[in-house]
Design brief:
The complex is a heterotetramer, with two copies of chain A and two copies of chain B.
Chain A (H helix, E strand, L loop, with lengths): L14 H9 L7 E4 L18 E4 L3 E5 L19 E8 L2 H9 L5 E5 L2 E3 L4 E2 L13 H7 L2 E6 L10 E2 L14 E4 L2 E6 L2 E7 L5 H6 L6 E2 L4
Parallel strand pairs in A: 1-2, 1-5, 5-8, 6-9, 8-10, 12-13
Antiparallel strand pairs in A: 2-3, 3-4, 6-7, 10-11, 11-12
Helix pairs in contact in A: 2-3
Chain B lengths: L8 H5 L7 E4 L9 H9 L5 E4 L10 H6 L3 E6 L5 H8 L4 E4 L2 H12 L4 E4 L13 E4 L5 E4 L5 E4 L2 E7 L3 E11 L5 E2 L8 H7 E11 L19 E4 L16
Parallel strand pairs in B: 1-2, 1-10, 2-3, 3-4, 10-12, 12-13
Antiparallel strand pairs in B: 5-9, 6-7, 8-9, 10-11
Classes of the chains: A alpha/beta, B alpha/beta.
């Protein structure tokens, strides 16, 4: 936390670009829950020949795009925004919705993060001193086999968000499986971080300067 | 003969006493039983413990209860409302913050005779380790923490023990309901409503449409009437409209 | 168990008569689960102006009478017999059905018994050495506020079935709230048996001779 | 694109290995997935652990598996079949007898990420105290008991801890299903089917009617397709009938 800002300037992916990069890794048939923020850009970038079923924890399986016009007040996503349904969509109550989540029936959950640790611990629900609210985040990271984090690589003060240990309250331990940032893509393999990709125009050195956690490199050109 | 329909909301909600615990359906304003919640305000009930996912984003629904100082404790996953946090930090209302899936399962469990269950959600976090503040003191210090929850390793994984919620009352909203208390919800307005109904020792359901007893096919009922004690209209019918209708979905 | 057979002969209620007596105590609006045997006669004796909702643990709330003719193979009760539905009936899966039962949302469960103890313990699922099967009995007696037993007062050898302690494996402890037999009606009050009624033509002495458990008498003429 | 419909039953059920555990829907023969169960026999699978409410009253369904000696263990509440007991007392098949509501809740819990829960059902009885015989030895003695279950007093009442069931496979039967795996059941044939589907790591559903993907309204789906991996026809359609239909309830 006391590291000084890196000397070099770097420009990686935009927030949309992070979502676009992540969308490439979604496979046909995946059932995916998307958190607020960057994850909400993901549907824009899912290829037309890939069917990804979107889940909202308030009981919607098979979300479609936002409606044209007002929308139906009885049909909203977990962010209380109006939605539509895809063919084959199903509605459940909240207990069944979280049965899907906790029981491991989703494939991927995509969510933002305040911090990720070297072991894949996630902090994303509470900045001490601010207003605490957790929603379904703890269930999603506990139950979903693949937990993909999207975030800016450093915070607004330029401090690393990928740390040896999280300093903010945890959402879950050893739950993150991938991290997609503006600068890089990390996988969590056997409980340790592995840098697998730098964003276009970003060097491994620039990533290293902005990452406080230890990690190994396995870059695919 | 069983007829659970009541025309007068206030005389029904009058059974709710000061200090009662209430499981409330809805997700944000979707499927929220506003007629029942407003009746609590008109009846000037206070010191309430509400189990609900969100307090809301304005001073309607549970937000109105908060705004009027009627809440002693909120058990929720995502309170949102800024005035709620102001009251919380001022020690005027207690917050038991729990994961959303845990809230759903605790309501279902309580209504199902399951006193406690293990879940991975929140294990090893401050929502389970006894460090989350339930109540602040007026000077800004911590008056009381949410008690630490039992943790257990099962098959190599850490879980936390959560208790079923049996609330004094359940407040729910449905799209259609009949005089036997059978309910059907519409789209994502279903959410916590069946669970809040199960959790309540005594449950009120406000319905958008009162339908005849054979209008809901037995396979189409989302919540059987056995969980509902009183059925009310979500919107009192205008005088020129028949009370009973058979509406399409 | 070593008691000798009572000297006097006694003829009390028939099996149908036991069900008829019990049916008088069902109140309008009650939700009731009926076990096999004597309880299945109960619906014959429910007064027309009393609405009793019958529940079957395989997920039927609102059973009607047996169908005329074949019946629908997709519509059976917990004894696998064809049934019909009453207006306002609802179908659920088995987890929801037992949520009703365990959660105390039924009013009364009526079932047969091998033995009942002085404290209201019930044994009704297993005769050691025979074929064990429990079905929903343990859930029903654990969850339902009122557990009413119907049975012959003594077994085929004339031995009392109301005992100081059950000798057969228990279904539940301190769960029985009433006992309806061919000879008498007992209530369980504060964990002890109370004889409240003798069948027509049966004397308190005849009941005492055939009851091994201690009980008090509070007979209403 | 997601299409879970498979025409050939045997090639689908071929994924089930000897020794597998299978959660099976149905109550008696009502809603029992006979096409799937029969496929196990045709594929000569053995040493199976079946979670099912009843073994049945004849040599169809699970009764056929028993009759052909394919069962290692049965977890059930009401086995019924006399030949099952004969095999049980002879030490040829194990019986884990549990209350019916406990079976239902264990299947749901396992499919819901709940590893264990407390229930009052069976507390203090021989189904929980370690005295029930899981397996007899060939000489008629007891080879192994069902282990004693943890008891706990909660709010003055005794409860027993039961574990969620995650089966290798779920076998279910539905009235209607679509290619996304969404299912709808008919009347009391629903029973354990949604729960067996939830419990299976991999679940097969045989459906009486394969319907188009938009034929089931989202509010009318009893089990969302996320719990189903393969959809098969319960009765292979005659050659002169269209495979796809839109049937009324």
């Amino acid at each position: 936390m006391t590291r000084t800002l890196p000397a070099t300037e770097v420009t990686g992916r935009t927030r949309e670009g992070i979502a676009q990069r992540l969308a490439q890794d979604l496979k046909d048939g995946y059932v995916v829950n998307l958190g607020v923020g960057i994850p909400l850009f993901v549907p824009l970038f899912i290829p037309a020949d890939t069917e990804v079923v979107l889940h909202a924890e308030n009981g919607v399986l098979g979300l479609g795009p936002a409606p044209e016009g007002e929308g139906d007040p009885d049909l909203t996503d977990a962010g209380k925004q109006a939605i539509t349904l895809m063919p084959g969509a199903a509605i459940t109550d909240s207990a069944m919705s979280f049965a899907m989540i906790r029981g491991g029936h989703l494939d991927v959950t995509v969510l933002g993060a305040l911090q990720v640790s070297a072991a894949g611990d996630l902090a994303n629900w509470y900045v001490p001193g601010k207003s605490p609210a957790v929603g379904g985040a703890m269930d999603l990271v506990a139950g979903t086999p693949q937990v993909w984090v999207t975030m800016e690589h450093v915070d607004r003060q330029g401090r690393p968000k990928i740390l040896p240990e999280c300093t903010m309250p945890l959402t879950g331990r050893a739950c993150v499986t991938r991290i997609y940032t503006d600068l890089a893509v990390f996988h969590v393999v056997d409980g340790t971080l592995r840098l697998v990709e730098c964003a276009p125009g970003v060097t491994p050195e620039q990533v290293r300067e902005r990452t406080a956690a230890p990690y190994t490199e396995d870059l695919h050109p | 003969m069983i007829d659970k329909f009541r025309e007068d909301v206030l005389s029904v909600v009058d059974h709710v006493h000061d200090g009662a615990s209430i499981a409330v359906g809805g997700f944000g304003s979707s499927g929220r039983p506003d007629v029942l919640l407003d009746a609590l305000c008109e009846l000037d009930r206070r010191d309430l413990h509400v189990y609900v996912n969100n307090v809301g984003h304005d001073f309607t629904g549970v937000g109105r209860l908060l705004h009027e100082g009627r809440l002693r404790r909120v058990t929720a996953s995502f309170p949102i409302l800024q005035e709620f946090y102001d009251e919380y930090f001022a020690g005027k209302v207690e917050l038991e913050l729990i994961p959303q899936g845990t809230l759903a399962e605790r309501l279902r469990a309580g209504g199902s005779g399951i006193p406690a269950f293990f879940t991975p959600s929140g294990a090893g976090t401050m929502l389970a380790d006894g460090s989350f503040t339930l109540r602040y003191s007026p000077d800004g210090g911590v008056a009381e923490h949410v008690p630490a929850k039992e943790h257990r390793m099962i098959n190599g994984r850490q879980y936390v023990l959560e208790e079923g919620i049996v609330a004094d009352f359940g407040f729910v909203k449905a799209h259609r309901g009949d005089r036997k208390g059978n309910l059907r919800f519409r789209l994502s307005a279903r959410n916590f409503n069946p669970l809040a109904a199960m959790s309540g020792r005594h449950t009120f359901a406000e319905v958008e449409h009162l339908v005849e007893v054979d209008a809901l096919h037995p396979d189409d009922i989302h919540l059987p009437g056995v969980f509902v004690d009183d059925v009310l209209l979500a919107t009192p019918a205008p005088a020129d409209q028949p009370l009973m209708e058979r509406s399409a979905s």
